[in-house]
UniProtKB/TrEMBL annotation, chain C:
Enzyme class: oxidoreductase
UniProt name for this protein: formylmethanofuran dehydrogenase
Record pathway: One-carbon metabolism; methanogenesis from CO(2); 5,10-methenyl-5,6,7,8-tetrahydromethanopterin from CO(2): step 1/3
Organism: Ignisphaera aggregans
EC number: 1.2.7.12
Amino acid sequence: MTQIIIKNGFVIDPLSNIKGEVMDIAIKDGKIVDLKEVDESRAIVIDVKGRVVMAGGIDVHSHIAGPKVNTGRLMRPEDHYLTNIPHILPYKRAETGLTTPNVFRIGYEYARMGFTLVAEPATPPIKTRHTHHELNAIPMIDKMAFVLVDSNWVSLDLIKEGRRDLLAAYYAWLLKATKTYALKLVDPGSDVAWIIKGSGLDIDDQMPEYGFTPRELIKVIGDVTQLLNIPHKIHVHCNRLGYPGNYMTTLKTMATARDITKVGEGLAMHITHVQFTGYKGDSWATLESGGEDIAKELNANPYISLDLGQVILDRPVTTMTADAPFEFVLYHLTRWKWFNSDTEVDAAAGIVPYRYRSKSYVNTVQWAIGLEVALLARDPWRIFITTDHPNAGPFIDYPKVFAWLISRKAREDTMKKVNQRALKRCSLPSIDREYTLYDLAIMTRAAPAKLLGLERFKGHLGVGADADIVVYDIDPRVVDISKDYERVVKAFRRAWLVVKDGEIIVRDGEIVKTVYGRTFYIDPEMPAELEKELSKVLEAKFRELYTVALESFVIKENEIAKPMRISTKTYLR
Amino acid sequence: MSNAKFILNTGRSLSQGMYMESEGKWSESYFKIVATIEMNPSDIKKLGVRDRVKIFSNGNGIVALVKPSDRVAEGTIFIPMGPIANLLVDGDTDGVGIPTFKTTEVEVRVSEEQVTTLRDVLKLLGAKNLEVFAKDLPLKSGERKFFESVSCPFCGDLCDYLKIEVDGNRIVRNVGGCAVSIAKFLNYHKHRILEPYMRMNGSLTSVDFDRALEEAAKILASSKYPLIYGLSSTCVEAVEVAIELAEIVRGVVDNTSTVCHGPTVLAVQEVGGVYMTFAPVLHLADVIVFWGTNAREAHGNHITRLITAIGRFRKGRRDRKVVVIDTRKTMTADMSDIFVQVEPGRDLELITALRMALKDLDIESPTVAGVPREKIYELAEIFRTARYGVIFFGMGVTQTGAKLRNIQAVIRLVQELNEWTKFVLLPMRGHYNVTGANQASLWLTGYPYAVDFSRGFPRMVPGVTTAVDLLTNGDVDAALIIASDPVAHFPRKAVEHLSKIPVIVVDAKWSLTAAFADVIIPAGLVGIECEGTAYRMDGVPIYMKKVVEPPPGVLCDVKILTNLVEKVRALKGLRS
Amino acid sequence: MGVPVTFTLKLKAVPKVLVDARWVSPDRFADRAIDEIKKFRVLEGGWETTVGELFEVIGPEKAPADPKEIDIVIEGSTSKICYIGYKMSGGRIVIRGDAGHFIGYKMRGGVIMIHGSVRNYLGCKMKDGIIEVFGNAGHRVGSKLQGEKPGKGMKKGSIVIHGNAGSEVGLGMTGGTIVVEKSAGNLVGSSMTGGTIVVKEGAGLYPGLEMLGGRIVIGGVVKGILPSFYVDSYIPLLKVRGMEFKKPFLSFIGDAVVGGRGFLQISYEDNKSLLEFYKSLVEEV
């Protein structure tokens, strides 16, 4: 296999505590190795003097695959008409789409930005096989999916029946059966209310037919993930998303993390795309930012991590979420296209095209919230940059978000163009903080690797790590990134060099080779006794609830193109 | 003798499906079914028909036997889906890609001429070869095996609870399948293509696999704009390879939704949709509408799975109200609580009136599309007060009149109903994996079907890149047909173009399209001999098992297409 | 402005597959030498060829810089050649025969005349200019593209078709005029938000479906109208854009299901059995 030496790069690697040193990095058999192990005369030697070297980027929340992503593509042919890049055979397939890109565009654009691992954050169990088909088809990156559990009738039945041990066993089985990586809660409990009654829920409302509240549900599932000892515990999209005043619900949700009984390592709860659930005020007209309050709770609550869901202004987006009741509400604002899918007995989803406008009061507040949270958070290890692609913006705009975080000037330049009345009600203009490239490397590499429990071989450049390496054409020793933020946008938009599993896939910002990454999934260990008991329950539940056979539901390992099984030692008895 | 004007409707029937799967499309029994015209007894009397009539449409005349049936309204005739019906259908697609399969105006004349035979029909269409080398796979008893949770590769219901019993390579029992499913499994060995063929000096000659593949690759690599068509009766893994092939040769790849639920897909592109998977229907639906679909005949198990079955909150048939809206009193209508007979091709008027009733807008006309105004208000009230309503709709809505705009309006109706209650809809997809063909096409190209790669990136333009338009107007110069039979389903002019261009057929059974083939490559039957994933009509993907091995020397679609891609790449100098 | 120069493109052989000839437009020709024009890229199916391969190109050594001074004449008839006049802003294209899809796609000005028939999407998304077809036109004349919002179709300018037109004439159009001298297919003017469509003879099913604004005039037999159009008035003699119909029309407003305020005017005598009832409603008031 290819041996590569990346010479003279300015290396930033927070997990190895390297804050910017000129170093050489050696690659052999897809891994980073000690320089001594590579024969320089036989290796490809690339001199990257004056450029930054980081580990491949990791995105913890981006809707890149699955039934709703595909329905988004179906619903938005107009998104494809002017966004095509022809194929270059034999090494590059055709790309199309901005907010609903095809699999090739997804893989290639992430690679061009130097991202090498992306998590699809919501897949309905019964259609997860579909999600895997798409993940298999996405080139360049490693990937994983989080499975939706909050409105799953089987688990709700078990909670109602008070069978906590079986519930844990069921989630363990579900992760393995669907080949997914973590449990996702979307507007907890709401899809049950939506499918049965056509409405949503707040955190202390009672779920129809089940009689307990989303708050209790979050706690139960949180406790169970502790028992399962899975690396990424619960991934929560809060109730009342998209409603003015919902920041209170978010604060309450964050507080539940304190109640979760902790037995394992790692953060107890991840709150996702917090911008959408950070609204103060009692109507759209009086909307204010709840960013400060949320950042305060984050700083005080050590069990929580957040990602932004940063709004990108003046770009079309396609909102798609398993929060079906919210999409129905949004459809009333746009009155154009709305797709809803009630998915078996385990989830629902909605899709509505939208556009955030810089002149809009509401959209400006939304834009400010994400940045406020990010800039007021003290610990970059617990805050992640996302646009909840394609909900708040397409992922290809991450470099813009980077610029807003590292440069006050970048924010000021954008603030000139937005709704000024809205700005007056936000604290963003008064915030001076500027992140460094080191912080950025934490937020996009080191911290996500840790959050996903993959810090052994992802997110750093130490010996033994996967050779996912990116070189950006910028030298922070020479360029003042705070002033010259456009250089940062340019450099991060198109990486100068990307190595994936030891192969060069991007040079000078362009794809030079199509490769396919792995799909990570969790296989929690289960005591045989419990497994036996569970299988009886499953058979009965499937016969009653599902319209597929239990056997059809289970995804076999050979259906995943390049599976990467991570087993965990559980506390199940 | 004077001609009488009739409206021609076509559609699936149970016996058409059964004979197609058991005896094959070249059999007398299949042809007899698809060449029999159903006519209202009073029309038969009025015309003075003895046992046959001659039907004309766009100058084509065919003679066929008549069967009296009070299921068809006066002034209309019904011919099951097949080559005869399609001979009469006009190739124009209204820019939507789907011909007006239903509500075609035809002229009917009493006749005593010889009944048109299948070979007459094929000759009329310009078939290249009429020899049929279909063989039955020799069966040998042997090891007995039982398979559970087998999925059925026939219709979009993709039942995955069949129990199949196998004796050697003989399938002896199918428990749980509908009549068509049983016919399909138990006769899987019949009318097979067991060797590759090439047309040489005007007749088909058996050749080895490599030779046939080489020739197929040559045809594709040397054509400027080939059409790759079919794909709804194979697995998504094969669909993905077929799309890659289209990208390499810069041709068009289309699947059969182009002639069935294409308009549905186009309507979703315009307004979205409100779909569900089966379980919410089972557990919650109390109002179930079948609109322009004869589910009981075309989707044998649909009713028992979802309507009569017991769900958590709905205890079977008695907890549900069944409404059937159709142009004729189908077998599905026989089991309905409310049957609404709508004038053929006028569904959009009825949908619009229902939307008006919901919005409290006055309906001025006392009848709409043949339905009294009061009945429309009643229907709107039933919909509005449902706890969980669902509309299953079929080709009766997609193939007539306003086509995609019918569906667009139904989707809007359902979206508007959600202001009042929970309401969803779902297209009754015909082929077992047509949904999967759409899905794979979407994730690879961004478009559900009719994807053109002539510019090196995907494009889809209904009416331009759709298979029927391309063939009817002679816009393509080669065709690769995979697991599909356009000769049995496309209008005459489209089929005629297949006689003028090189055609490659990849199929398990000897289809009518084989009569137009220059290269024939045998394939294993997906879901019986080959594994792979199919998507149920509601988008639930199921990995299909195999219960027997493919015939000796016969490969599965994925393998065949992967080999073909390699060969085409080599010819085009595109080795990676 | 100088005297226009003419480039004549003589078709060498009839292509067997669809051809994308979007570089055939005065804007592309402007300021180019004839040898450059001959080398313009044309796609024959998925294969690249050139204008010079497909046509014999006759014209001056160099085209003027202003597209308005360029006439392009295409001789030879084929329904395969598509996208002629793509985004043209001025000048004139004359096609002496049939042409394919997307003629005058996104056109911004100038004139296209076709002495034959064209296929689908004539004048699709056109912003301005004039198109005249002496034969028939296919479906979706002056339309938007699939999946776009209503109003994303033709914006300004005029399309005159001397023969018949297909279905969905003016789909999603927002301005301009389309005149069909003979009859049109189903769904004339669906989702239109403005502009005028005049069909002098008959039309198919349901003109004006989901129209929000604009005006549709149908001078012959209509195969069906939607119940969501409310009858407004009886017009004994109709004038529209300088055309006069010396017969009575019934005028409807709709489409009510989308809260539309468009006018749909249908010849009364030709559709007496369909419209008699509606006329009685106007008379009662």
